Amino acid sequence: MADAPLVLGIETSCDETGIGIVRGHTLLANTIASSMDEHARFGGVVPEVASRAHLEAMTPTVDAALTAAGLKFSDIDAIAVTAGPGLAGALLVGVAAAKSYALGLGVPLYGVNHLAAHVAVDQLEHGPLPKPCVALLVSGGHSSLLLVPDVAEDVISLGSTVDDAAGEAFDKVARVLGLPFPGGPHIDRAARDGSGAAIAFPRGKIDDGTLDFSFSGLKTAVARWVEAREAAGESIHVPDVAASFQEAVVDVLTRKALQACKKYDVHDLLIGGGVAANSRLRALAQERCDAAGVRLRVPRPGLCTDNGAMVAALGSDLVAAGVRPSTLQIPADSSLPITTVHV
Amino acid sequence: MLVLAFDTATPAVTAALHDGERVLAERTTIDARRHGELLVPTVEQVLQEAAVPLREVTAIVAGSGPGPYTGLRVGLMTAQGLAGTLGVPAYGICTLDAVAYGSGLTEPFLAATDARRKEVFWARYSDMRTRVDGPFVDRPADVPVNGLPVVGAAATLYPDVLGDGGGAPPYPYAGALAALAAERLAAGVPLDPPRPIYLRRPDAVVPGAPKRVTA
Ligand SMILES: [Zn+2]
């Protein structure tokens, strides 16, 4: 696709200012500025801090992405931007940037759904998506199971969390165990020295016949377990607690993902989002996919966490599909439904 | 010189084009909740009305606040983005300076806008062009009015303490912002980069120990 248009993608739905540049499904730049360090002491992302950081970071991050790709602004053929879901004030900075670039360059704008972009990004690494595929998206902000007949046109929600996102549960359990924010990588690391079978933590909604998730009860169960041991004056083996908690999360995630594949007779599963970097999730998903005859696709970690390349990838699909561009009046929609792939 | 100016730091979404001598076009919509949706169409309308293509603009100016942050950032991000793609400079001018300039006053006065949370953003001027103190954020009763007239929407919002002066103009209309910018540029006065004046820290509390779930 040497003559496919150059698409610049902008992602600001949470704490990462991400700029990606693609031509077709070829990744040319994926530059990220994160404000995570500023949020860490608050134990979670502070929306106003994130919004301020996006405004500070946008221009330098775009410049860095253009430099990395060896391009000038005027080379860009289309702009794609996360229009939602996400933090309202954070999204607004990205959408304002995208509109100003589209207006200034005289190129089309594509406002896209953040979750669909998490699916589309895998094409930059593993080529075109099988149609259909099932996608499991897990991060600090989302836990969703999707049926994806066509990522540019048609994405169907099969299930999502009824309370906490999976990544949120990691953060909260990390706090209980005295591990730093964000909790995911720290729990993953601690769990390597522990046994996932040490403590039988509950699996929320495991066999309830839905494809929804629940992690709030698990989080509370871990806190109760730790508090009971502390009250009894017993020491806590953090690696065992971390491993057993992690096992409960990934057991439910992978089990439901494969239930979805079976129910819809789909043979390709894609896992994305920050939690897709979890080593136990990758291992158990691979094991269960192999057993079920399902092909597993997981983008490399830099494409799993929020980034601009995913937005550019979906934008590129929209251009290729001949989708009508967005107007320069589109709002940022913090609760954009997944059924709306583009606005 | 062709200055495109806009401000989104108050409920007014306002844009104007100035050729160094006069305002060629100005549009303003009052809608405190839709800055992100309204700004670009407003800019497009102004360009169309003046029959000027965007690529002929030589400088972009945005009101840099102080003002409620979500809207404020839309204007400043747009200024940076247009400047970057057009290859022209972008500047920020204090939003209260545009209110002050629009008043046309030649005597000392205050300009004050709504900061929400029962506070106001304000600054003191010796005349329409000259800020001598501020900007600050304070409760209306704590603003040292000292008998000076007060312009800006805060005067009509808190007439008992800020009412002297009647509050006109209520907003930083972009025509005034553009004219002020053109004046300063022509005089060779260095302008600030398009960066926000916040005056408040983000609301965020460092958490203590995790809450116990068992009694
Ligand atoms: Zn995400």
Automatic annotation (TrEMBL), chain A:
UniProt KW tRNA processing keyword: yes
Domain Gcp-like, chain residue ranges per copy: 27-312
The protein's name: tRNA N6-adenosine threonylcarbamoyltransferase
Listed GO MF terms: iron ion binding; tRNA N(6)-L-threonylcarbamoyladenine synthase activity
GO terms for biological process, alphabetical: tRNA threonylcarbamoyladenosine modification
Enzymatic reactions: L-threonylcarbamoyladenylate + adenosine(37) in tRNA = N(6)-L-threonylcarbamoyladenosine(37) in tRNA + AMP + H(+)
Keywords noted in UniProt: Acyltransferase, Cytoplasm, Iron, Metal-binding, Transferase, tRNA processing
Organism, scientific name: Nonomuraea terrae
Enzyme Commission number, as recorded: 2.3.1.234
TrEMBL record, chain B:
Residues annotated as domain Gcp-like: 32-143
Transferase listed as a keyword: yes
Gene3D superfamilies with a match to the protein in the record: 3.30.420.40
Keywords of this entry: Transferase
Domain of life where this protein originates: Bacteria
InterPro entries to which the protein is assigned, alphabetical: ATPase_NBD (IPR043129), Gcp-like_dom (IPR000905), T6A_TsaB (IPR022496)
GO MF terms, alphabetically ordered: transferase activity
Biological processes per GO annotation: tRNA threonylcarbamoyladenosine modification
Cellular component GO terms held in the UniProt record: cytosol
Keyword S-adenosyl-L-methionine among record annotations: no
Protein name (record): tRNA (Adenosine(37)-N6)-threonylcarbamoyltransferase complex dimerization subunit type 1 TsaB
Source organism phylogeny: Bacteria, Bacillati, Actinomycetota, Actinomycetes, Streptosporangiales
